[in-house]
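Troubleshooting log. The previous structure file for this entry was overwritten by mistake, so regenerating from the original sequence record. Sequence copied from the archived sheet and checked twice against the printout by T.R.
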Amino acid sequence: MRAQEKGVLSSSNLYFHTASPRAKKLFFYPLCTGHFVCDSDYNLKRTSYDSFLVMHIVHGTGFLETDGQNIALKEGDFVLVDCYRPHHYYTETGWELLWLHFDGPMARSFFDELTARSLILPPPDIPSAYKALKAVYDAYNLHRDYSEASLSCMIGNLLCMFFNGPAPETSDGSSRPPARSLGDTLSYISENLDSPLTVDELAERAFLSKYYFIRLFKKEVGYTPHEYIVVSRVNFAAFLLKTTTFSIKNISIKCGFSDESSFCTTFKRVMGSTPLSYRNSGK
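Regenerated output below.
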């Protein structure tokens, strides 16, 4: 449908979605989405509109005012707005926007995590993030037949892109993704739990400095590399304790522990019980 707001040109479109009770309980769901081409008269100010807004500035510049902040927005930016709170966005020169109002049981948690530093989100790949946002818009604009579960996946995929952050800088100051991702590192750890694994080795495999690798790993995974290796080994041991008749000593070796005593101490610290108690329990 055509937008009626002042400053929105006739080439613009917006679409509304009425979420089912099930979607509101389980999924991310859209409230409305649109593609706006605006002149300098565009100026939107609300006390609230119960949703979260992800907005991409395709062309032009503008401003967002919310929570006492006045944020300059430029071409290429993605911004996430808590529309439950007063907000005001406008352009003085004209701009083109692709946007989505959404909500869902996890929307607040995603918003808080993604905007801990800034409402402007740092997509690692702007064309991919644009494509993901446009896919939701095109579900309506092109009359594609998507279920609410599929729409939820599309919105979730878009939001998860922003957790990757910008590509790390190389030594010459340029930006590029590492030759190996953290996904590759996690897979490597999983496949080599019975082998010695050092942070130096993992950082070298990822083509990152040791200290940057530790910071990035902690930010993305929630554990330091050492903590992750220990917890992964304990989880593997817990699986073997419940699914095999291997001795505890044999399990400690298969899970990469230096000796049985170290294994038992670490297992109890992480799991709250000894390996033998865990094996004999109903957990």
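Residues 35 and 151 are 18 Å apart (CA to CA). Archived copy saved in two places this time.
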